[in-house]
Amino acid sequence: MQTSLSPSLMQLSIRTTQCQPLKIVALGDSLVYGFGDPEGGGWVERLRRQWMAVDGAGHIIYNLGVRGDRVQQVAQRLEIEFRHRGELRNQVPNLIILSVGVNDSARLSRLDGKNYTDFSVFTAEINALVERAQQLCPVLFVGTVPVDEAKMPFLGCFHYNHIDQYKYKEVTRLACLERDIPYLDIFQLWMERGEIWRSQRLSADGLHPNTLGYQSLLEDVTNWDAFNKITKTPVSVGY
Question: Between 206 and which of 103, 148, 170, 236 could a Cys-Cys bridge form, CB atoms 3.0 to 4.6 Å apart?
Answer without folding.
Answer: 148
